[in-house]
Amino acid sequence: MLNLNQPLEKIAADLIAIPSESGNEKEICREITSCLSEKFLIQGRGENLVVRLNNFEGAANIALVGHIDTVPASSDSQLIPKFENGNLIGRGAVDMKAGLACMLKIAYEISQGTLKPKKNLKLVFYSGEEAPLPNGLNYLKDGKLLDNIDFSLVLEPTDGRYCVGCLGSLTAKVEVKGKSAHSASPHLGVNAIYKSSPLIERVSAVPARDFVVGQYSGREVMNVTTINTKNAHNTIPGSCEIAINYRFAPGKTLEQAELEMRLVAGEEIQVIDASQSCLASSKIDRFLLPGIKKQLLTGWSDIAQLNDWAIPSINYGPGSLVSAHSADEHISVRELNGFYNQLVKHL
User: Fold this and answer.
1) Structural domains in the chain, sorted by start
2) CA distances from 128 to 66, 132, 212, 217, 232 (A)
């Protein structure tokens, strides 16, 4: 069982040592449940948990939210946590087992009476964030386990800054038809990859567009991300599938984003993943500390779903998103502990 009576970075290291790529979260969910169930009320659906830490009548209800899955490890060594040059290294170190460690440490300190928050706290652990929607948050919402939350902090890595909104993401595929033939006789076929060239050129010609929303700025981009033929290497491809991804500004709807993509890629696109943008309202300010920089997240986050469900939410977590998913994923031990001290001030 996880030992929460140890330094924060050691808890994070123990979490790294538990493989938990998307779709394989049972073990880490079981470990989290085991170390919290004796002291706190836990509700859940599948590998998704809501843990109530206290219940003060009339106090605001704050949730700390973290996904328990990671992207796959590229080698077994990434599942062996190590400390080097003041950093904790391993798969999920920053995305987001450091954030999970903070959540568990807060629960432990409350259980020991060394932390006495003034607000009602819930911990939300969920699965499938690194996979396409829906994920565990959707299942918790459907089970009404996210009701009565006034504000949530999603502890994704933000370098300790407030990310108060995120870009939306729209992904569509286009199937381009050609005619297959043996690669030794290309004149008998029509190469679907070559035929897709005009589409690829149209997408590549879409300029990155800077935008300003309120006091925040960002950049919209559209890119071809994959070309799939499901084809033998000695065959002229008779068809290919082009995937296009569009990252768009807060305030733009999914319908507007899809229309813009159709103007570029044509009416034949088929949307395969759609995640709306968001910008949290100014109502969140009463839950925030002065002096911490606010910005937009350049990618997408589940704060978009939470805000859409009328749960004011921002990303606020330890470590840099630049390190997430990388071969040497890591987090500074000093920064992790410094973030924890700041997080506690919110409670």
Assistant:
1) 8-166+278-345 (3.40.630.10), 168-275 (3.30.70.360)
2) 11, 8, 31, 29, 33
Per-residue confidence of the chain (347 residues) as pLDDT tens digits?
Answer: 899 999 999 999 999 999 999 999 999 999 999 999 999 999 998 999 999 999 888 889 999 999 999 999 988 899 999 999 999 999 999 999 999 999 999 999 999 999 999 999 999 999 999 998 899 999 999 999 999 999 999 999 999 999 999 999 999 999 999 999 999 999 999 999 999 999 999 999 999 999 999 899 999 999 999 999 989 999 999 999 999 999 999 999 999 999 999 999 999 999 999 999 999 988 899 999 999 999 999 889 999 999 999 999 999 999 999 999 999 999 999 999 999 999 999 99
On whether the CB atoms of residues 191 and 237 are closer than 8 A, the answer is: yes
DSSP code, position 73 = P
Residues 6+ apart with CB under 8 A from 148: 61
Angle between helices 98-112 and 26-36 (to 10 degrees): 20
Q: Are 108 and 53 in contact (CB under 8 A)?
A: no
DSSP 83-116: EETTEEESTTIIIIIHHHHHHHHHHHHHHHTS--
Rounded alpha-carbon distances, angstroms, from residue 36 to 76, 109, 118, 220: 28, 12, 20, 42
Compute the Cα dihedral for 128, 174, 297, 148 and give only its sign: negative
Token pair recorded at residue 21: 């790529």
DSSP string for residues in 228-253 = E----TTEE-SEEEEEEEEEE-TT--
As a whole number of angstroms, the distance between CA 214 and CA 258 comes to 23
